[in-house]
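REQUEST ID: PR-0412
SUBMITTED BY: lab tech R.K.
PRIORITY: routine
TASK: structure prediction, single protein chain
INPUT:
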Amino acid sequence: MTCCKPLVVTAGEPAGIGPELCVALASERLAADIVVLSDPDLLRARAALTGKDVLISEIDPADVGTRRARDDELLVLAERFPVSAEVGIPNPENAAALLTGLRRAVDGCCIGHFAGLVTAPLQKSVINDAGIRFSGHTEFLAELTGVRRPVMLLVAGDLRVALASTHLPLREVPDYLTQDGLREVLQTLLDELATRFGIANPEVAVCGLNPHAGEGGHLGSEDRDIIAPVVREFAQRGYAVRGPLPADTVFTAAGGHKDAIVAMYHDQGLPVLKFAGFGKAVNVTLGLPIVRTSVDHGTALDIAGKGLADAGSLVAAVNLAAQLAQK
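STATUS: complete
OUTPUT:
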C-alpha cells in the first residue's frame, strides 16, 4: 500500500453504474485501502443484481484507518438515501443526500481522516432538477474548499490534458477566457505537475481557441490578445510553455508536446484524450487542498445493473489518487 490512510470513494448517482463499480473494487488489487461512502443497502442490492459475491460491511467513522477490508469485502460509511434507487432512473429526491455525502467526504479529507477523495460519476441534470444549482464535481469541490479557480486535468498514461474552462456552454467560452484566468490555470498546472506528479521543469503546450490558433487575428483575436501574451510571460519567466498552437495538430507527434496540453474548452481537449484511453483515463482536480480523482465517464444509466460496466477507470482513479497522496 502506498497510503497509510484510506481513500474515500463516493459511489455517485445511485441509479447509475457508480454503485456497481464500487462493488467491483472489493475484488481488485488496489494501491491503497478504501472506504466507500454510500448507502450500504444500495450497494448490497447492486451486488446481488450484478451477481457479485461481495460482503458489504458498514463501519463506524471511528474505525476508519484501523479496520482493513478482507478479500471480497467492501467497507462502507453509511449515507442513506431517502428514496430507494431504481436502476437507470435517477430521482431528484436523492440529490440532497448525494451532496451531503460529498461534503462528508471532503470534510474527512480536510481533517486528515482520508488520504484523498475518489468520485464515481454524478448525474448533473437530476441535481439541478431538485432545485440545486450544480455544474459538476470540480466546481462543487472548489466551492467547498474555498478555491477560486480549480483546474480540471484528464490523465491517460503519459497524455495529460488540462482545461482553461470546464463546464460552460460553448458560446460563453470566449468571454470567460481572460489573461488572469489563463495565468492562474497555467501556474496551478505547472506547480502541481512538479509537486504532485514529480515532473521537474514540466513542458506544456497551450492550444489556441480558434482554428489555426487564430491565423494572426484573421480567425479571431483571442489567441493573439489573450493567450499569446500569457504564454510569452511564462516563457520569459523560464517555464517551458509554448503556444498558442493549433489544436488540430498539438495532440499529434508533430505537435511535440511532452508533459501536458492546455485546452481552452471541454470538448477541445477531452475527445482526443478519451479516444486515446477511454475506460482507463482519470480526471484529477488540481488546485484543491485535497487529492481528488474521478472516472473518465458518466453515469451510463442505460447499462446500469446489467453487469456490463467496466471498473477500469475507477481502479485507475484509486491508484492514481494513492500515488498523488503519497507525494
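NOTES: The first strand starts at residue 7 and ends at 10.
REVIEWED BY: pending
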